[in-house]
């Protein structure tokens, strides 16, 4: 299955369906092998000590994987996370956005499995790794 929603379509979808968070994220790239999403790090994403919080890193992974799935199946707002695991590996670099590099591992009719490797912009070593499963609602 090829790309159904490109970067522009995903950006428009997020603005329409999730306006409360759309300004914190950007879809950087979508192709047949990978989706890259950005967390635009602001003060609301920081924990004491000035590092990006775990919930913000989780949110980036969840949004990025969701968009990777939608890029293939189209605008299915009710696709939901059914399983999630995040390994936090190192402190993000100060003052840098985070990037999630996602790939779909399995895309079925009712379930999708994907992973995301999260890095600080400009840094090669991963900050976190996430693996998630999504339930896709049956077509009506």
Automatic annotation (TrEMBL):
A Pfam cross-reference name: 4HBT
Organism: Paracoccus nototheniae
UniProt-recorded name of the protein: PaaI family thioesterase
InterPro entries hit by this protein: HotDog_dom_sf (IPR029069), PAAI_dom (IPR003736), Thioestr_dom (IPR006683)
Thioesterase domain ranges (all copies): 49-123
Keyword Oxidoreductase: no
Keyword Hydrolase attached: yes
Highest taxon above the source species: Bacteria
Broad enzyme group: hydrolase
Molecular function (Gene Ontology), one example: hydrolase activity
EC number(s) per entry: 3.1.2.-
Keywords, ordered alphabetically: Hydrolase
């Amino acid at each position: 299955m090829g790309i159904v929603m490109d970067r522009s379509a995903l950006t428009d979808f997020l603005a329409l369906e999730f306006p409360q968070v759309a300004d914190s994220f950007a879809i950087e790239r979508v192709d047949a092998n990978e989706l890259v999403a950005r967390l635009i790090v602001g003060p609301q994403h920081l924990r004491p000590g000035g590092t990006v919080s775990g919930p913000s890193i989780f949110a980036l992974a969840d949004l990025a994987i969701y968009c990777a799935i939608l890029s293939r199946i189209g605008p299915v707002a009710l696709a939901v996370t059914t399983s999630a695991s995040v390994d936090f590996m190192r402190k993000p670099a100060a003052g840098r956005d985070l990037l999630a590099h996602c790939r779909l591992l399995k895309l079925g009719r009712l379930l999708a499995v994907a992973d995301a490797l999260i890095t600080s912009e400009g840094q090669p070593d991963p900050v976190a790794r996430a693996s998630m499963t999504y339930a896709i609602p049956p077509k009506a």
